[in-house]
Amino acid sequence: MRARPLTLGQRLTLAAPYLWIAAFFLAPMLLIAKISLSHSVLARPPYEPRFLPTDSLSDWWAKAQTLTFDNYRALVSDSLYFDAYVSSLAIAGVATLVTLVVAYPFALAMARSPRAWRPFLIGLAAAPFWTSFLIRVYAWIALLKDEGLINNALMALGLIDAPIQMFATNGAVVVGIVYSYLPFMLLPIYAALEGQDAGLREAAADLGASPVDVFLRVTLPLSREGVIAGALLVFIPAVGEFVIPDLLGGSDTLMIGRILWNDFFANHDWPAASAAAIALVTILLVPLVLWERARLHEGQERR
Amino acid sequence: MSAPLLSVQGATKAFGATVALDDVSLHVGAGEFFALLGPSGCGKTTLMRCIAGFETPDSGRLTLRGEDLAGVPPHKRPVNMMFQSYALFPHLDVFENVAFGLRRKGEAKEAIEARVGELLEMTQLAPFGARRINELSGGQRQRVALARALAPRPALLLLDEPLGALDRKLREETQFQLKEIQRKTQTSFVIVTHDQDEALALADRIAVMRAGRVEQIAPPLDLYENPATRFVAGFVGETNFVEGVVARRDGPVLQTSFARLPRATCALPEGARATLSIRPERIEVARDGAGIPGRVEDFVFRGEYTLLRVRVSPEIVLRVGAYDGRYQIGDEVKLTIGPEAGVLFAEEA
Fold first, then answer.
1. Which pTM does this prediction carry?
2. Searching chain A, which residue's CA lies closest to the CA of residue B75?
3. For residue range B315-345, what is the model confidence (pLDDT) as tens digits?
4. Top-level CATH class of A70-301?
5. Closest chain B C-alpha to A120 CA, distance in angstroms
């Protein structure tokens, strides 16, 4: 069957999101990619070469010759970057797992609550967004620091004699990420669970599955898509997170977001920072593309 | 009769102000094909869910093989259910769907493979073991649901409108298959249906339910020939209701607006208002001779007979089954209702 040619209105409607992405995502990405191939100089802007509209074509060609992959070589040779990537992936990975473990029971409880309550519960899940993200992260400092709420309470109860070091640790960063990103895990899992046919659970119970079996064999596998979506929504921004490690992490908390910030604002080494950013995007895109392809493949298999 | 496999005694269940089951009692024997028949909302599905363990009756007792089912959760009952929606697991293939109950029982791998193979064979699904559920046709899904419910060898199989989602031709074929499988496996089947043809075709005994109560429990033929209530007469099979008043002169007579119908027997007193239920095929039709005069208004060819709509008075049209003779619209006919034909009910207050 041949598709009908699209009308002008349909074309414009389809083009709009692509134009948006091209203007506000692709173009900046290309700029960053170009800067990542430049040299750092003491100037404004602090990189060379710059392709100016007043240049002749031969000027552009000469300038293009000076573009270099040195910044990427530095990423590989300087162990600071490598360690930062590994540490970022590890912290984001642990935080994603913890978020999943915390969010799943909430999502399950929401999905099994009386239908009339659900909009209210979703509202509650989204309620933290009514307060500034920054303020909420600052609030965690008050909870976690040595003379903070938690340590004071534990000491008052006589459970500990000296404050536990919680603030300025990787653990605090994980807590901050879990807290901040919980709704992004909660909502996709809730959507997957809410759409499940209760008849399937009854069928499983009818066939001899205990409540634990029903969960492990039916509910959990059927919520897979929601879990994957939620994990991606938490993991990807968490890897590049800057505010949370900067506020809650210690001086030894190594995350790529902080390195980027340092390169850009402290060292004014835009090319190095750009290369690190491009490398981060690549690291995050590869698994995403693979997953998407696996899903497409599965879809074709089921045809 | 040996002890019944399933016994329901005085089961009552209300959802808020709605009474779904009102003092229901029935028994299902071992190896029996039993049908719960009734219009939607009559409580048949609630009763089935009580047997499966998804609902708990407010009062009354359910026993299976003499053991009280109260407090036994669904996964510990030797009862399996074929769901109306089939409720097949979309993340598992056909084989794993059928094997689900066996795996929960912790059976050995070889035993599971043998049993699943046997069931796939029986339900003509052998080539489809590796298929996903969404790759199957409606009829195939229906058979997977049946195989899955039968796999753990339940003492009792519950079937909730098992043929409801199939088209007419497939339904007929599947009726025979169901009956054959029931005979082969010697499992007791309890089928829930609103389709009287299905119940009549499949079941050894039928319980007709209405508004949470059992109206009558009887084998199909008895149900058809001797309905216990006017509701049963109307719900099972096609019938005419003729209203009149009982009179007794030389034997009982039903005096109707269009004829005096002599009755062989009648337990109702003189002057009682009564309704006669008479099946179309029990009304004899002829072109002439004695009988109630009428005029053919309309006819529907039904294959082995023709259903005539015959007007016998300005207000009353009877449906009559004619097995021979070609009748045309407008034909004058004579109808005879024998004194033995039909069942007389007292007018419901």
1. 0.84
2. A208
3. 999 999 998 878 889 999 999 999 999 999 9
4. mainly alpha
5. 25
